[in-house]
Amino acid sequence: MFHLCCGSKQLLDPDKVDVVHRLDKEKCLTLEEFRLIKIHMSIHIWRLALHVKVRQRVIATAITYFRRVYTSLSYRNLVRKSMSEYDPRLVAPTCLYLASKVEESTVQARLLVFYIKKMCNYSSLFPISSSDEKYRFEIKDILEMEMKVLEALDYYLVVFHPYRPLLQLLQDANITDLTQVAWGLVNDTYKMDLILIHPPHMIALACIYIACVLKDKDLTSWFEELRADMNIVKNIAMEILEFFEYCRPDPKNNILLPEDRINAALNKVAAKP
User: I need a surface site. Which of 36, 58, 210, 230 has the fewest CB within 10 A?
Assistant: First the structure.
């Protein structure tokens, strides 16, 4: 068969992932707003990455780092960081900068700063006026935050992704024609916390399962031969489908989020106590 490395020691209890930090609660940040910020900033990392032209793996690693920062990493004895202390609008590009170095596809900080400013000028989610320069980040801001992010991650930068097992599994099942659909679904899982909770190969299987349903392919016998826990596979698949119900894509497959609510949430964590 083939070897699938899952990095199981990294996996977390779902109940410990979606938790609002005490300091953020004091600013009245709700769980739904916390989730919206994570989704929005994951998409922001994606868009920023398209500008600086990095590989898909860099984007996935950056988003994983971003989500780890705001999660209690019990296997590293680390306490989650608050969005009030670690501004997500700065943490997000910093994670992309860090991931680009880890994945040997380095992006210069000045290039990130250039595109952040360019994107800010066209986004109401990064409000900038002549009197408010708060989110016009400079190179030194990213470099300083990089050290804080490294500390928050306890310098543990290893990430196991579903992409490699996905390709192995598709080839094993002789359904490489579903690669594009399944790969796209894996990309979408990074808008959720699945990478923190489930083994990468199980996420890959869930995406293959959905792709088979969408393309009307029956792989029941193949799944049985794998002896994978189909309850887990189907549960992950349901989480993915529920996400699309929560954030319905537009005709161009872009995730639509309520800008006014995201703005309100970001303003809460940005406000000084």
Answer: 230
Structure tokens at 25: 């609660």
Q: Is 149 among the domain residues?
A: yes
pTM above 0.90, yes or no: no
d(CA 53, CA 65): 19
Q: Is 30 inside any structural domain? A: yes
Evaluate the CA torsion angle 121, 51, 39, 12 in order and state its sign.
negative
**Beta-carbon contacts of residue 32 (< 8 Å; ≥ 6 apart):** none
8 A C-beta contact, residue 191 and residue 43: yes
Dist. CA 98–CA 106, nearest whole Å: 8
User: How far, in Å, CA of 87 to CA of 145, rounded?
Assistant: 9
> Does position 132 have pLDDT exceeding 60, yes or no?
no
Answer yes or no: do 107 and 145 share one domain. Answer: yes
Q: CA torsion, points 134, 139, 143, 149, in degrees to nearest 10? A: 50
